[in-house]
Amino acid sequence: MAKTYIYDATVSGRMSFPIDMLRYDCCFPTTEADAGYITRSLTGRWYSGSESTTETINLTRVSSRRLVGEAFTGARWASFGWKVNGNAARLTVVD
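and the corresponding structure tokens:
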């Protein structure tokens, strides 16, 4: 049976969420609350009520193969004013 590799990470930023990064890193918001943060950032209504507040969003990436290198592209996130928190994504392997 094939293994499934699940990578989890958090990203944080103050500006509108770079929605194209979900496509670029092949990931999705981990919870409904995370999806809500993304929606509010795009409409200018952050959860905290302030655009100057840094928000943290949990993301998940699922793959049928173990990834070599970064599961989340930190340099590209940084180009949008966001950062991937921690040194690497957390990995869970499901048989």
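(Above: one complete record from the training split.) Residues 32-43 form the longest helix (12 residues).
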